[in-house]
Write a structure and sequence with these properties.
Blueprint (H helix, E strand, L loop, with lengths): L7 E4 L3 H13 L3 E4 L3 H8 L10 H7 L4 E4 L2 H7 L2 E4 L14 H9 L7 E4 L7 H8 L4 E4 L9 H6 L3 E5 L5 H11 L5 E5 L1 H32 L3 H9 L20 H14 L5 H25 L6 E5 L14 H11 L3 E5 L4 H5 L6 E2 L3 H5 L4 E4 L4 H4 L3 H7 L4 E4 L6 H6 L3 E3 L16
Parallel strand pairs: 1-2, 1-4, 2-3, 4-5, 5-6, 7-8, 9-10, 9-12, 10-11, 12-13, 13-14
Length: about 425
């Protein structure tokens, strides 16, 4: 790579910041990444990472000479002109985005700063204008991230599109950011700051809407005897609809969809508009997580004193992220009904232990299934598809499985002796055997 590539500053080395820093280093840029947590900076400086993201560790190791981690804001300001802000913007109790970390970054910039603030953090539309009203003359570019946990490195290095928002007078700063992404390809969307901010919120809200919609369709399919998998396949072949995000399940979670959908709903409300559709999207998602409990009760009656295993805890596979994971709600509801809960997750167990009081954690899926009256597949980890389900059935008090992701083969489970129920599908019982057998 060319040694004269522009240095880049990254503020905040959580999941987004760390992926951003590592990927820009991979392209050939010297990167200075700053975080306020000294322990995190020291760990990263030693080449140690604590988040699970495929390919990220290899990227950090390969580009160690280009990466500098620091707690010193002065070192960052001296070393880079383009500063990518990747701090967290969690929801407040009202549902609005908490911008305190973003504001803290702005407050640390010198009054005569010639740096360009490049906003990667997800912020409400209008945030850039608000910051610039408070700090006239501050160079500000919006460049929202569209990374998916579990494939973030691939998403960064091969983007569908790169959105860059720069207002009149800041086109040169927008050009500077655009040049960074040229080697990566992907369609470049140049627009104003507020529209760029809105693209991120609208994108996640639409994807969440597709998920809630197909889950509603799944619930109707159960009532009328249709198969939601076949329905979704037929829908997805329509180019106007597409197949993505039409997989029925027990609801979305993670760091983006719940937060961004709520933030957009609150943004609309604060602006005087009642976004009714998003209210329904949120409600459907919350109810979907609870429908599993009803399915279990349909099969085994009262859950008091029953043992139920949760297979998978993270909100999706290939991550250890437990934020807004369906397992949190499900475990709490099962315990509320008097059930004892065991759990296994190949990656997220450590992150989950502090969040799931009273849950018994096991070191393998088969151990989690020992003696239980039912199991729920919560996260579609590949190892569950490869599990010896016949052996699992023998270890369970009752081989009943609720497949919350429609991930497993009902025929295989049925042959293994399971009562199987997915989402939006017919219930399958064990294969009958003859008396001679």
């Amino acid at each position: 790579m060319s040694p004269d590539k522009e240095p880049i500053g990254v503020i905040g080395v959580g999941w987004v910041g760390l992926v951003t820093a590592a990927c820009f280093a991979e392209v050939g840029h010297p990167v200075i990444a700053r975080d306020i947590l000294a322990e995190k900076v020291e760990s990263l400086s030693r080449g140690e990472i604590t988040i699970h993201e495929p390919g990220l560790g290899e990227l950090l190791k390969r580009n160690a000479e280009r990466l500098t981690f620091t707690t010193d804001m002065g070192e960052l300001l001296d070393g880079a002109r383009l500063l990518f802000v990747c701090v967290d913007t969690p929801p407040t109790r009202s549902g609005d985005a908490d911008l305190s970390r973003v504001r803290a970054v702005v407050d640390e910039l010198p009054a005569d700063s010639e740096h360009v603030l490049v906003m990667k953090s997800t912020v409400p539309a209008g945030t850039g204008n608000s910051i610039r009203r408070d700090r006239p003359g501050l160079a500000y570019v919006s460049c929202p991230e569209f990374l998916k946990e579990g494939s973030a490195v691939e998403d960064f290095m091969h983007p569908d599109r790169v959105v860059i928002g720069a207002d009149p007078g800041d086109e040169a700063d927008g050009d500077a950011v655009a040049r960074l992404y040229e080697p990566l390809g992907g369609e470049l969307v140049r627009t104003d700051v507020t529209s760029a901010e809105m693209v991120k919120l609208a994108s996640n809200a639409f994807l969440a809407t597709k998920i809630s919609f197909v889950n509603e369709i799944a619930n109707v399919c159960e009532e009328v005897g249709a198969d939601v998998g076949e329905v979704a396949r037929g829908m997805g072949l329509d180019q106007r609809i597409g197949p993505a995000f039409l997989r029925a399940g027990i609801g979305y979670g993670g760091s983006c969809f719940p937060k961004d959908v709520s933030a957009l709903k609150m943004l609309a409300g604060n602006s005087g508009y009642h976004f009714q559709l998003l209210g329904s999207v949120i409600e459907v998602n919350e109810l979907q997580k609870r429908r599993v409990v009803q399915k279990l009760q349909k099969h085994i009656g009262s859950l008091a004193g029953k043992r139920v295993a949760l297979l998978g805890l993270a909100f999706k596979p290939d991550t250890d992220d437990m934020r807004e994971a369906s397992s949190l709600v499900l475990a709490a509801r099962l315990q509320g009904e008097g059930a004892e809960v065991t759990a296994y997750d190949p990656v997220a167990a450590d992150a989950a232990k502090s969040l799931l009081d009273g849950v018994e954690f096991r070191d393998s899926a088969l151990e989690a299934l020992d003696g239980v009256d039912a199991a729920v597949l919560v996260t579609e980890w590949p190892e569950f598809a490869a599990l010896d389900w016949a052996a699992a059935a023998e270890r369970m008090a009752r081989p009943l499985l609720i497949d919350g992701r429609n991930y497993l083969d009902p025929t295989q489970l049925q042959s293994a002796g399971f009562e199987y129920e997915g989402i939006g599908k017919a219930i399958s019982g064990p294969v009958a055997t003859s008396a001679a057998e």
